[in-house]
Amino acid sequence: MGRNPNRLIKEKSLYLKQHAYNPVDWYPWGEEAFEKAQREDKPLFISIGYSSCHWCHVMEKESFEDPEIAEILNTYFVPIKVDREERPDVDSFYMEACLALNGSGGWPLTVLATPDKKPFFVGTYFPKEGKWGRPGLKDILLQVAKLWKEDRKRLLSSADRLLNALKGERFSPSTASLGEDILHSAFERLMALFDGKFGGFGDTPKFPTPHKLMFLNRYFYRYGKNRALLMVEKTLTQMALGGIRDHLRGGFHRYSTDRYWLLPHFEKMLYDQAMLIFAYTEGYKLLKKDLYRKVTEEIIRYLEREMFSPEGGFYASQDADSEGEEGKFYTWSLEELKKVLTPEEFEIVVKVYNLRQEGNYREEATGRLTGRNILHMTKIPSQLSEELNLTEETLKKLLERIREKLFKEQEKRVKPSVDKKILVDWNGLTVAALSYAGRSFENHRWIELAKKTADFILEKLLSPSGKLWHRYAEGEVKYEALLDDYAFFIWGLLELYEATLQGKYLKKALELTQTTLNHFWDEEGGGFYLTPDYLKDIPLRKKEFYDGATPSGNSAMAYNLIRLGRLLGLKELERFGEKTLTAMASYIYRTPIGYTFALIALDLLVNGSKELYIVGTKEDYTPLLKEINREFLPDLDFLKVDETTKAVSDHINNLSRLNGKTTYYLCRNYTCEKPTDNPEDILKILRGY
């Protein structure tokens, strides 16, 4: 590259290594940088992003590769690069500061802070020079350098005011209480925001937010409101048809920049794939649409083919850019297609995927058509086959042949890079999703993938003291695990237990739950802190409640605690789940649709749950579980009574066989039906609730 690397070359993070040849004298987040800032009396310049972030790449090219900006940063600041996926706690703290100052946030996140890490200026993307009313990075840096020298009290005062504002209500206990009314409020608000033509909620940009759909599935299950299921069906179908779905390789891009689900930001995130596996699997169970099964299979095929580490565990993300251009790998000109396909195939692909000579892919900044096309559909296969005068089966085979040819052609292109770090939180979600889909579709391969991933985490990322690490990369484990790591992995272990009935996974879920309570619980205000009590390198310990692209750690822990408490008869765990939701109550009442995963947990408290205990042999109970797993029963958990499960729950020690036969105990809200050795009795009751 013509210049010596900076110290980021020693890091494992792909994002940090992408900046290793910048002329900026970058430091990773750590004591070396903080000590230098104190010693040389300089403010910190903290730049936070991630490897698949398009605008992070833009800012790097415009500013961090620029010698003039580098000289300013190296002279007047201590520059720090942070991978938000490795240090979500650092990102969360400064993002909250950004939201407090500006009302909005995003990445790259740009922070100016005192040597003791207190922010006094926070923003997102800045061009090098000011334009379009947006200040330029160069002017900001020079102005702050001047103020630091001539009017430092002003900056320090700003930092103190901002930190005090962030402390605010975070530490005050909630006095609100949650009830059934908030479930109805959330449903009504989702109805009001629903896009009846294209699915999803709100206008643009559109994110999948699968937990909103999962909430609606449960609302339909509990209250029989067809409108809830119609919103789910419309959204799942339109996303499956749109350009946000990768029609050749499987998986979904991060979000759509338009209301039609056509033009995505092309990065692919592991957590999106995991949550969408849940949404499409649940959608299939309720609606029996083959399209949803196909989408689920494609997502998992993509993950296994391109994101699974040979060691075990899934990689974090795949970039939006290749050869310096966003979407280049995924888009097509008609000339490229003509070279690969027969005339008949070309005609079909143009009609099915809505391709045009001038292209349908517009540059986001200018709106200009690029001559390139995003594969997307506007009609489901049955409608298309009628229009093309083909049988549905003939069209299906023809499209499979076309996709195979285009896939092979695409393989010749430069692929977007894959960020090969393995994160416990996102892998926890993936273990949960694969386990749930595996048992729902009777796909043992998917369950084995989940097992390999969970076993990898337990072997490589669990310390002898029982604490998790957050990240694995190139043989190195690093960074203390945060709340999301524990919450999502516990969820994964719970789902994996129900897919395998191997008690070791339930036992480990319970152990990690206790670790989470010991080190993350807020005794004063209730709920869980993002960081454990032994992590001290951020100015403020904070709690996160909002369910964004993924559920919050607090929502997931509430869900875990209620399920584990009821399944194992440990009422203290359920009470912690209730207290967690109570801590969130005032936030939920303000904006219920911002907390739909918390409402999934609340639904179990409001409307009850069922627990099925099995005493007997696999040969006997397997047919029953197959039937159960095909049904959508979000309020049911089940447990096999054996030596391992007896060791973690006194609740089940007295359960035994009737007449030497496999026996089933079905309980609801701590009250059990009469035990039976007839699985048909159980199915009748479950289907009748």
UniProtKB/TrEMBL annotation:
Keywords, alphabetical: Coiled coil
Coiled-coil blocks: 385-412
GO process terms (BP): carbohydrate metabolic process
Database matches in Gene3D superfamilies: 1.50.10.10, Glutaredoxin
Signal peptide: none
Pfam families, per database record: Thioredox_DsbH (PF03190)
CDD domains, sorted: SSP411
Keyword Endoplasmic reticulum: no
Occurrences of domain Spermatogenesis-associated protein 20-like TRX (ranges): 5-166
Cited PANTHER family: SPERMATOGENESIS-ASSOCIATED PROTEIN 20
Name of this chain's protein: Thioredoxin domain-containing protein
Higher taxonomy: Bacteria, Pseudomonadati, Aquificota, Aquificia, Aquificales
